[in-house]
Protein: Helix-turn-helix transcriptional regulator
Organism: Uliginosibacterium paludis
Amino acid sequence: MDSRRKELGEFIQVLRHRSQPADFGFASGSRRRTAGLRREEMAQLIGISPTWYTWIEQGREVNVSAEVLDRLARSLRLNRSERAYVFEMADRRDPQASQPEDDDAAPIYSTLLPEIGVPAYLMGRYWDILDWNAAAADLFSGWLDQPHDANAPPPNMLRFVFLRAETREFLVDWETRARRITAEFRADCRARLDEPALLRLVSELSAGSTDFARFWKQHDVLERQGGERRFQHPKRGLITCQQTTLRPVEQEHIKLVMLRPLSKR
């Protein structure tokens, strides 16, 4: 028996046993031999036959659609982690995963930035730079150190890379980095590719940069990784950094990027 199907069945069984019948409009009383909902009641909530539900719970080789899982998650009021777990065990894409999230980073992350002694910034789901520290403003001289209108869109890493001519000098080996950044962005947004805001950004970048249009059409996909990054600073010359990216568990679309300068060899 496939271990994921078995795990899904056992997890759903636990959810059923912990659910209170009265919370779902079912009568509760002494005639119930076990705690929680009956299989027939779970099937009714989800909108499938009792037999089909039983097979799912038993871990049999049946295909559970995303729609059924969505109804289950909604009916049982699963939290975010439980919902993600159910879809992962069923090897299905959550239809709610592509819903736009609030791109505001929790205030605690912004308060941490000044405490970080290396260039650091917070990046949102479309790679807007949401906040940064003084060291990052110094590193990205001419961009993050400039006055920013609070009513204007936030700085965006992709616009910085592809729509500013001076970035080609600032990023050492610009083409290699730009190609990789495009592949990382595609991977990072794989669940959001049909969102209007992302489509508008891709259209803007494609119209403004033939390089971005070319890289985007190549459909390269790479997970965001750390590693050595080199910058040709207009005042300080060559700067080499080790990049590290962290994601908060409670806001996984937010990225905390840190660039630790490496000593000159």
